Each structure stands twice: as C-alpha cells, then as structure tokens.
Amino acid sequence: MYKNIAVAYDGSEGSRFALEKAVELVKALPDAKLSVIYVNEESRESIGYMDPGTASAPVISANVDSNYAQFMPPGIGDEGFSPPKEYDNSTVEYSKHMHTSIQQQLDARNTTASVLALEGNAAKTISAFIEEQNIDLLVIGNSGKSGLQKFFVGSVSKKLIKDSPSSILVVK
C-alpha cells in the first residue's frame, strides 16, 4: 500500500490533526516511513562581502542551498563573509521551535519520523519534495479559512490537491 508517507505541518490545529492521522497510518502500516515537513515561507537574501582583493562587488544569493552550492567557486562564503548588521535570526528560531514541537509530539506517540525544514512557497516546495522523495501519500490539514480570507489568501491545501503528484489525505 503506502511506503512513504509525508505530513505537512505548520503548527495549526488542522496540521496537528493531520500529524495524528499520519501517526495512526504509520502504526497501521509498519513498513511505511514517515516524514514530517514544515515550510518557512519567509525568505530573505543573504548578502556578504568578500575581501577587497578577491571581489569588487557584493556576493548576493537568494536562498543558496546545496543544489546551488556546487556551482559556487571554492572559497565563496568561507572567509570574508560578514552577515548584514541588521541580521535577523527569526528564521532559525522558527525552525528550532517547529522542530522541537514536532519532535515532542512524535515522542509522545512513540513514533519515529524524519523531521525536515524546507524554505520557499509552501505549495510549490511541498509538491517538489513529494515528487523528489517518491512520497506515496501526503497528509495535510484543512486550513480552516473561510469566506473572504480564503478568497484573498488562497489555500495551500487546495493548491496541493490540484498540483501534487501523489495521493493526498485532507484531515478535518
């Protein structure tokens, strides 16, 4: 049946229900592997300056990750990098908080899972993750948005149902 199950978690009541349902599924399917993913949609550019002798312009990168790091010349980002003075580590704090919260819930249910932090647009990032990781089933919570809020904000659940390459279980 399902071998790779992922649950999208954002701390909302709907995502907590989704996590509970995903844990139930994994316990019923002992060969299944569970991944809990959360997405930080707050992105900021990283700006650093290299030593004057090696560069004449700032090195700017938007969300450089391991996929792009392989194309960077050796030494970029090692020495000479200085974070902006107004550096805000709220992204790091958010990730720590989410990871701790998820791990506590998994421990309380005596469940083993991979807990992964992703960055970017939630719907696109989750869709790409489930395609890359060959996820059989994505478990998501219903956002609970209604009326004008749903119209203006849009629903990640709705976008995932439309764009996801895997089966989706929406938990209410």
From TrEMBL:
Gene3D superfamilies: HUPs (3.40.50.620). Coiled coil: none annotated. InterPro entries: Rossmann-like_a/b/a_fold, Universal_stress_UspA, UspA. Residues 1-172 form the UspA domain. Belongs to the universal stress protein A family. PANTHER family: STRESS RESPONSE PROTEIN NHAX, UNIVERSAL STRESS PROTEIN UP12. This is Nucleotide-binding universal stress UspA family protein.
